[in-house]
Write a structure and sequence with these properties.
The chain is of the alpha/beta class. It is about 55% helix and about 15% strand. The strands form 2 sheets. Strands 4-1-5-6-7 form a 5-stranded parallel β-sheet, sandwiched between helices. The chain is globular.
Length: about 260
C-alpha cells in the first residue's frame, strides 16, 4: 500500500528494532501505541493529530533505519530513532554492523540443523527448570546438562557460520581497533539519517532505548532464569558515551528508565 503524507497531521517516522516496531507497528482501533499516547497527552506542532509511520522491524540495526529514512523522509515531518540494544548486542559479539542480525542467522541455522536446534531448545528449557528447582543443588545433573548444552550449542553455532560469513570478519582485530571501526560505522548511519532530515528541514531525535530486565537489581538465580547475561551494561553505556560526544543531532538516553532503585 502506498504511503502518503497526511497534511492534516504531524507525521513521524519511527525507526528501530522490535521495541520500536511494537510501539509503532501494531494498530489497535486504527492507532499504534505511540500514536495513542501522543494524541492523548500532547498537541502536535502542526495539524490536528500525531501520525506514526512505522519504519522499524524486529532485529534491525542502524543501517536498516537509514534505509527506512531514505524511503520515507519526504512523507514525514520528523524522524525518531529508538535503538541501541541490537547495536549493543552486535558490539558485544564483535560483529560487523552491516551484517544480518543474529536472529536471521539462527533462522537459517534451524533449516540447516533442525534436530540440533530442537535438542538444544529442550536442554535450554531443562537447564532453566533445574536452576529453579530443588535439584539445582545436584552438581552431577547441573554439570551434565551444561556440558550437553555447550556441545550442542557449538554444533549449532557451526551451522550459523555457514549462513553468516561476516561472523569472523573482525575476530582478528584488537578490541580498541574494533571499537573504533564499529562506532565509526554506527555514527555514519546515524549521521546519514540526520543529514537527510536536515536537508528537508525536518527534526531528528535518537533515543537510546531502555532495556528493562538488564537494569533491574536481580538476584543471581533471577538473572540465570531470565537469561539476561548475553549483553553487558558496559556495552550500552559505551555506545551512549560515544554518541553523547556528537553535537549534531538530538540524543535522549532512556537506558535507565526501568531501573528499580531504592
Amino acid at each position: 500500500t502506498p504511503i502518503f503524507k497526511d497534511l492534516n497531521a504531524y507525521n513521524i517516522l519511527l525507526v528501530g528494532g522490535s521495541v520500536a516496531e511494537q510501539m509503532g507497528g501494531h494498530l489497535v482501533d486504527g492507532e499504534s501505541a505511540l500514536e495513542t499516547i501522543l494524541n492523548r497527552l500532547y498537541l502536535p506542532p502542526k495539524g490536528k493529530r500525531f501520525r506514526i509511520i512505522n519504519g522499524s522491524i524486529a532485529a534491525a540495526t542502524q543501517p536498516v533505519s537509514a534505509i527506512s529514512t531514505l524511503l520515507f523522509i519526504d512523507k514525514v515531518d520528523e524522524v525518531i530513532s529508538l535503538e541501541g540494544f541490537n547495536e549493543a548486542i552486535g558490539f558485544k559479539s564483535k560483529r560487523v554492523l552491516e551484517s544480518p542480525n543474529a536472529i536471521w542467522s539462527e533462522i537459517v541455522s534451524i533449516k540447516l540443523a533442525p534436530l540440533t536446534f530442537l535438542q538444544l531448545k529442550y536442554l535450554f528449557s531443562l537447564s532453566r527448570l533445574i536452576r529453579l528447582s530443588p535439584v539445582r543443588h545436584s552438581y552431577i545433573l547441573y554439570y551434565f546438562t551444561q556440558a550437553m548444552t555447550q556441545a550442542l550449542h557449538r554444533r549449532f553455532e557451526a551451522s550459523k557460520l555457514q549462513s553468516d560469513p561476516y561472523e569472523l570478519v573482525y575476530d582478528s582485530l584488537s578490541n580498541d581497533l574494533y571499537e573504533k571501526l564499529y562506532f565509526d560505522s554506527l555514527l555514519k548511519y546515524i549521521q546519514s539519517i540526520n543529514y537527510l532530515a536536515k536537508a528537508q528541514k525536518k527534526n531528528f531525535t535518537y533515543f537510546l532505548q531502555p532495556t528493562p530486565l538488564k537494569y533491574k537489581n536481580l538476584t543471581t538465580e533471577e538473572s540465570q532464569a531470565a537469561n539476561v547475561s548475553f549483553i553487558r551494561r558496559v556495552d550500552v553505556e559505551k555506545i551512549y558515551s560515544f554518541l553523547r560526544g556528537q553535537k549534531s543531532f538530538n540524543l535522549i538516553n532512556l537506558e535507565k528508565i526501568y531501573e528499580n532503585v531504592d
